[in-house]
Amino acid sequence: MTKDIRTPAIETAVIEWREGVPRSTRFDDLYFSREDGLEESRHVFIGHNRLAERFSRVPAGGSFVIAETGFGSGLNFLAAWQTWEASSPGENACLHFVSAERYPLERKDLTRALALWPELGEYADQLLEHYPAPVRGVHRLVLAGGRVRLTLFFGDVLEAWRELDFQADAWFLDGFAPAKNPGMWQEAAITALRSHSRAGTTIATFTAAGEVRRLLAKAGFTMRKTPGYGRKLEMLTGELPTVSGDGSIDGATPTPSIAIIGAGIAGSLLARNLAKRGLDVTLIDQAPQAGTAASGNCQGALYVKLGVEFNDQAKLGLSSLLFSQRYYSQYGGHHWHPTGLIQLAYSAAEADRQGRFTARNDYPPTVLRAVDADEASRLAGIPLQSGGLWFPDSGWLEPGKLCRALVNHPRISHCYGFRVHRLTPCNGKWHIAGNGEQDVVADRVVICAGHLSPTLIPLRNEFRFRTIRGQVSHLPESSLNNPAVVLCGPGYINPAHNGTALTGATFDLHDHSPVLSAESHRENLSMLASMVPSILSGSAEEADPALLEGKVGFRCTTHDYQPVAGPLHDAAGRHLEGIDLFTGLGSKGLSYAPLLAEYLADRITGQPGCLPLSLARRVATQRCLKRETPQTETIGA
C-alpha cells in the first residue's frame, strides 16, 4: 500500500537483500542480475546502443544524451559513465544522462548496492557524494568536473517526460519487468519517447515482451529481437530511422563566442559554466575586477524562504537551494562555509507561519527540520529565545572572492573598466559599445548587470524591474556573542570571520544613495537586537553607528520578486536573436544563481535543460513585460 507522504518528500524504495542482491518488495523483482549485473548492463544497454563507438565521435564541446526509465541503483548510469571516460570524446564534451525514478533508493541502500562493483568505485563515490535527498522533481548533478551531467527526476515517468526538455541519442528502457511494473510500460509512456528522440536515436531494453515491441514500433522505432543476457534468451533493440538528407551528428558544436555583461555572482557563475563546456567567453564589467558591486560583500548567507504552499515559487526556491549547496561544496574550506543555518521564528507571526509550513509540508530532515529554542541555542552556541527551521547543509559564502575565483579560467577573457553604452546587432553578431572603448563583438550576449540590466536591454521601457538599496553593517567580533551558524529572520547575521561579522541588509525603497548611512547602520543594529536579543554586547549597543564599516549594494527585483533567466522577447512576443537576460535575483542571488546559470548554459549550448518546463516558465522574461507597452520591432542579430 502506498504511504501517504506530503510534498515535497517522495516515498523511497523498500529493499530486501537476497543472496547479496537488492530486491524491491513493492514490485517483487531484483534490481539487477544475480549472475553479473554490470555485465548485463554492458550487454543490454552499452553494447546494443553502440556507445563506445558513438562516444568516440562526439566532437569537442559537443554532447551525447542518454535517457533512461528507472534509475534504480544507478548501475546503468555508472556503466555508461565508465564507457564515456574510456572512449575519449572531444575536449569539453559532455555526457548527459536523464533518468526518471518513482521510488528512489535511500542513500544507505544505494551505497550497499554499488559497493558490489569495486571497479566503479571512483564513479560511485561521486554519485553518492552528490546524490539528492528524496524530494520530488528534478535534480541536476554535475559530475566529473562537468564532463558528466545527471538529470534525475524523482516522480512518475509520464510527468518526467512532460516536464523535461531534452532530445535523446540513446534510450535505456529499464525498470522492473512489464508484468511486475506495468505503469512504467504503459502506452502513453512508450509513445512519449518519440517526442524526446532525434533521428537516429537508438533504443535497448532487457525485455522481449511483444506488447513493448509493438508499442515501440508504433512510436516509429524499427525494432528487432536479439540474444539477451544470462537466463534471458531474448531482448529488444531498435532505432529511430534517419530521414533522407539528415546531416545531424552526435553532439552538435556549441556557439563559438559569447559576451557576458556583468561580473557579479550571476555573470561569474555563467561565465565559468560556459567556459567549462568549451565556449570562449568575454566577461565585461565597468569595475576593475569581478565581484565588486552587490556581489562584493565579504559575507553572504545562503538561504531561501520557502512558502507554506508547495507551489512553483517554493519549488524553484528549493531546487535552487539544493543545487547551490551541491555546487558550492567544491569551494569548502575556501570561499564556502557550511556552518548550517537557522531561520528563526523571531515573532508570533513568523512562528505561526512556520507552524503552518511544517504542518502542510514534509521535508527530509537532511534538507530542513523544525527545532525548538533549546536545540536552536545548542546549534548556534548562543542563547536564543525562539526556535525555527534548521538547514544543516546551508551556511555562508565569501561572494567577492568566489566571483574572482570563478572567472579565473583560460577560456574567459576579462574586459574590466568597460562601461557599456549600447548593444547593436550587425551581420549576425552583437556589437557592444562602450564610451570611448573599442566594440566587443560576440555571437551571443547575456545581460547580467544587476540593477543596471534594464538600462542595457535594447528594448526601452518595456520591462517591470525595480532597484532596491541594501546596506550591510560590519560588526567587530569583540562586540558580539558570536553565533556558530547563520541566523536569519527579517535580516541575517553570519558567524564572525577574520574578526568581523556581517549583518543586514536594509531594504530601502526610496533611498538610492551609494554612500554609507549611519541611519541604515542603526536600522541593522535594531533589527539584529530584536531578532537575537542576546547577540550584542553592552559596548556594541552604546557604540556610534556612524563609526561602523559596511557596504551599500543595489538589488534588482521583479514585480513578483522572482528571478529572470532566458531569451529576450519584445512586447509582441517575438524572440530577439542571440541575446539573453539573467537578472532580478533580488536578495537571494547566491541561492538562485548557480541553478539558473546551469539552466542558461543548457539553453545556450542546446543541451538538456536542468529546469522542468513549469519552472522554466516561472523565470521567463516575458512575464516581466509591461503589457500595455506598444509593439516594437524585433531586433535580430
Automatic annotation (TrEMBL):
Q: Where is the MnmC-like methyltransferase domain?
A: 118-240
What keywords are assigned to this protein?
Cytoplasm, FAD, Flavoprotein, Methyltransferase, Multifunctional enzyme, Oxidoreductase, S-adenosyl-L-methionine, Transferase, tRNA processing
Keyword set includes Flavoprotein: yes
The record's catalysed reaction(s) read: 5-aminomethyl-2-thiouridine(34) in tRNA + S-adenosyl-L-methionine = 5-methylaminomethyl-2-thiouridine(34) in tRNA + S-adenosyl-L-homocysteine + H(+)
Q: Where is this region: FAD-dependent cmnm(5)s(2)U34 oxidoreductase?
A: 261-637
Q: Which Gene3D superfamilies has this protein been placed in?
A: D-Amino Acid Oxidase, subunit A, domain 2, FAD/NAD(P)-binding domain, Vaccinia Virus protein VP39
Write down the Pfam families for this protein, in alphabetical order.
Answer: DAO, Methyltransf_30
Asked if the keyword tRNA processing belongs to this entry, the reply reads: yes
The UniProt record lists the EC number as 2.1.1.61, 1.5.-.-
Region tRNA (mnm(5)s(2)U34)-methyltransferase, residue ranges:
1-241
Q: What's the main place this protein lives?
A: cytoplasm
Known cofactor(s): FAD
Cellular compartment(s) = Cytoplasm
Q: Which SUPFAM superfamilies does UniProt cross-reference here? A: FAD-linked reductases, C-terminal domain (SSF54373), FAD/NAD(P)-binding domain (SSF51905)
In this protein, which residues make up the domain named FAD dependent oxidoreductase?
Answer: 258-603
Q: Which domain of life is it from?
A: Bacteria
Q: What does this protein do?
A: Catalyzes the last two steps in the biosynthesis of 5-methylaminomethyl-2-thiouridine (mnm(5)s(2)U) at the wobble position (U34) in tRNA. Catalyzes the FAD-dependent demodification of cmnm(5)s(2)U34 to nm(5)s(2)U34, followed by the transfer of a methyl group from S-adenosyl-L-methionine to nm(5)s(2)U34, to form mnm(5)s(2)U34.
Q: Which family does it belong to?
A: In the N-terminal section; belongs to the methyltransferase superfamily. tRNA (mnm(5)s(2)U34)-methyltransferase family.
What's the protein here called? Answer: tRNA 5-methylaminomethyl-2-thiouridine biosynthesis bifunctional protein MnmC
- What organism, scientifically named, is this protein from? Marinobacter azerbaijanicus
Q: What is the lineage of its organism?
A: Bacteria, Pseudomonadati, Pseudomonadota, Gammaproteobacteria, Pseudomonadales
